[in-house]
Give the backbone structure.
Amino acid sequence: MSRYSYIPHTETEISEMLETIGVKSIEALFEDVPKVFDFKLDLPESSDEFSVARELKALSKKNLSLNEMAIFRGAGVYYHYIPSAIRYLSSRGEFLTAYTPYQPEVSQGTLQALFEFQTMIAELTGLEVANSSMYDGATAVAEAALMAVRTNGRNRVLISQTIHPEYRHVTNTYCHAQSIEIEELPYSKDTGQIDLEKLKSTLDDDVSAVIVGYPNYFGIIEDLKKIKALLDEKIMFIVVANPIALSVLEAPGSFGADIVVGEGQPLGNPSSLGGPGFGFFATREKFVRKMPGRIIGETKDVDGKTGYVMVLQTREQHIRRGKATSNICSNHAHNAVIAAMYMSLLGKEGLREVAIRSFDKAHYLFHQISKIEGMEPLFSGPFFHEFPVRLKGTSASKLNADLLKHKILGPMELEKDFPELGNSVLFCTTEAVRNEDLEFLLGRLEEIL
Amino acid sequence: MKKYAKTHEWVHVEGNVATVGISNYAQEHLGDIVYVELPEVGKEVTKGDTICSVESVKAASDVYSPLSGKVVEVNEELDSAPETINSDAEKSGWIFKLELSDPAELDGLMDEEEYKKYCEEEEA
């Protein structure tokens, strides 16, 4: 019998392996691992599957599922309704098995699904090429910054303070490791949009890229045209977008964006615990060889039949090793396939409807909240389906604790990431918020404040 | 007078300017060339530096500068017709021109005869 229930090696095998490499014990093998990571899990004795399943079921009942709640929180992860067909289609074995479809002769289904995905992302972003997904929104932003530096050889990246705080952290980590200078651009305290004057005075010949949100973290829609007008032609204009919003907003590509990236989770992927989602990444064709990630192409086989293959692999890590365009090897192809299913099930009109309903509900909520004593919307800029509010009558955490008692996931608290905003929260609505949820929330807010 | 580097670039010098490309032997080994990443005009290079890359259907290979100097011209034709390197590697398939900073470096390169022998040894 093995010492570890879920590890197949027997004691004898373990001793043999240790002897072969000349190490005395398992503990000695791992002695280089800092003690802080030495997790001693306090687990009960192992038991049969039936009993464990019962116990875990009982534990899971303590959780509240988003499906039983009214959701007024977004901040990077969005609760949209997911058509039930998606769960069944995306669980088919054919889609679950392929990791990297290097062999086109056995991966046509996956390859075609990803090709369709790329086409839809290119259309939403208004750009010519899209890759078949990245790890997540944060790494997509970081990789876009690296791509800009690769493309124009400049070394300074300007990132708006209203990009998701976690995306900024990840981008900082990437840039710091490659000695790329990174600077944050402040936002206007009136509109919540990027401070154009400040941007103008920060620009110089060393600036490689300018990164802005569309909508930004506060839900505010930036004036991409005005920003683009300030940039010299070498600067890469990077837009971090919400893909649902892109079905109603003018595409960033038509405002001269060079790279459009974002988190794809809102497209048919569940919120889970903040992941897994996937990153999307689109750019202009002239930069395609500088773009990270995999690209699926359409071609003809020897008989003239249409087929799909991975293209431009020569710049990838399995061939270029250390000189590869990018060394992020994990993409989230399955999540991207789910997104392609979602977009094709809803179609153009359906996607627009999701966006318009999300927008309408948020604007109704904004309007009603403006009338409540003790709550004050922070910015005057145009917004999509999120908006920040300053609280006067109570603290953000107290408000959320009260709402949770009523099965409402309340707004995101902003003070931790934006101390300058103090006691403020970020509300979000999607089409999955029912009208009675809105009225109930407003009732609670009146009561509390 | 053509000279060759061990990294399979050829050099043709006129006055103080060297025209550089990859050798016929190199293009044969790379296979169908689909893209050439041209260096930037004005770039200063030292002998042996990676200066640009050539991409074929099966690999991407770095091109090393066989001499030191400044890039004064690049072959823009290769942008739209990279396959020129396959059909005419050592003439119209040139990649860039260098203004030499140290012409004496030429002595370290092989002539056609030596290079031919070198390739035969590589094959063996």
